[in-house]
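Thread amino acids onto this structure.
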């Protein structure tokens, strides 16, 4: 329909889209154009491994009431104020349109930006909704969510997906109701996602299909623990750190991107989820796959130093049968997921599907 015989793709990616996928696409020779806040551009440029294929286009994020001056990313904006950041980025539509007219990509990957589909189609560009959370979490968007719902209604999950072992607790209803709150431009968080999905020509997930854990290779691994730690507040090469032999345990919130990183590591896993998709991811890792532990929370979902310490000591105890079972389960999953042919098959199929869209 658009480009016959077109093999190499030019893909534009919008902010708040996972960066890892772009390197896999660039490695295959496809051109990637990123829209990023101006202040973030230098940091990303320094990490660019494909200078001839990945290009960053800076956006000037306007100041809006409620947003701290100079705030451009979620790393410096508390969750309850991120609606102002979303609204500010909504105001960059004219900048995005101007850049798209010049670079003329085949398609644009986006997530929160419900206005991208209409803009893209006006320019003859395919809008692809890129899912940065699990397909399990996206399934929740089939259900409308309002602040008037009671606890039981909020906790109810779709039948069949997620697995029956993945459940919400009553005290987590408030965290789930975050998605019903205003998230800028007159839409709630969930309404933004639902609108953006409905407007897309295709939806892209990062996921996989494999054998059960029990059918995977049975060999485990030996933890290598030692050295001393430090506290650092800047950007770090997290994926590289997780493969360092002195790291024994990884405490994290179980966001979807981080989840893939720790699955491909040899570290023991301790999880402290905060919001909806992280909670579901955690229950999948802990209750279904049995590869880590969740820190027990106290009153008002607070995490004490005692409960965190207890969880870390538990997974690092080499004499604990349950901890050793989690090590083995993790090792089996890693063996499957790190197989080169396994990963190559997925990225090649993904690229083929994208190429079919632009024919």
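Threaded sequence (359 positions):
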């Amino acid at each position: 329909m658009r480009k016959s015989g077109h093999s190499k793709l030019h893909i534009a990616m919008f902010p708040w889209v996972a960066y890892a996928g772009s390197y896999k696409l660039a490695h295959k020779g496809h051109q990637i154009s990123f829209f990023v806040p101006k202040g973030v551009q230098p940091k990303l440029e320094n990490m660019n491994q494909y200078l001839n294929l990945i290009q960053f286009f800076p956006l000037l994020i306007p100041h809006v009431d409620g947003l701290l001056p100079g705030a451009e990313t979620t790393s410096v904006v508390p969750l309850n104020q991120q609606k102002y950041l979303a609204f500010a980025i909504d105001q960059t539509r004219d900048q995005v349109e101007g850049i798209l007219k010049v670079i003329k990509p085949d398609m644009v990957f986006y997530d929160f930006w419900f206005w991208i589909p209409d803009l893209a189609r006006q320019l003859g560009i395919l809008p692809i909704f890129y899912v940065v959370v699990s397909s399990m979490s996206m399934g929740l968007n089939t259900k409308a969510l309002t602040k008037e719902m009671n606890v039981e209604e909020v906790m109810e999950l779709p039948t069949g997906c997620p697995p029956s072992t993945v459940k919400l607790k009553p005290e987590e209803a408030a965290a789930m109701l975050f998605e019903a709150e205003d998230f800028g431009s007159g839409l709630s968080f969930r309404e933004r996602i639902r609108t953006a999905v409905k407007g897309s020509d295709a939806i892209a997930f990062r996921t996989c299909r494999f054998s059960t854990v029990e059918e995977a290779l049975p060999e485990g691994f030996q933890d290598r623990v030692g050295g001393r730690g430090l506290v650092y507040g800047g950007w770090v090469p997290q994926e590289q750190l997780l493969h360092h032999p002195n790291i024994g345990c990884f405490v994290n919130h179980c966001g979807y991107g981080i989840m893939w990183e720790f699955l491909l590591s040899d570290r023991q896993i301790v999880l402290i989820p905060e919001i909806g998709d992280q909670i579901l991811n955690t229950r999948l890792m802990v209750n279904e796959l049995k590869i880590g532990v969740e820190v027990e929370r106290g009153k008002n979902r607070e995490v004490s130093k005692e409960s965190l310490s207890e969880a870390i000591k538990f997974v690092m105890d080499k004499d604990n049968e349950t901890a050793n079972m989690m090590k083995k389960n993790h090792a089996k999953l890693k063996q499957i997921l790190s197989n080169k042919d396994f990963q190559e098959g997925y990225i090649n199929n993904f690229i083929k599907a994208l190429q079919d869209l632009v024919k």
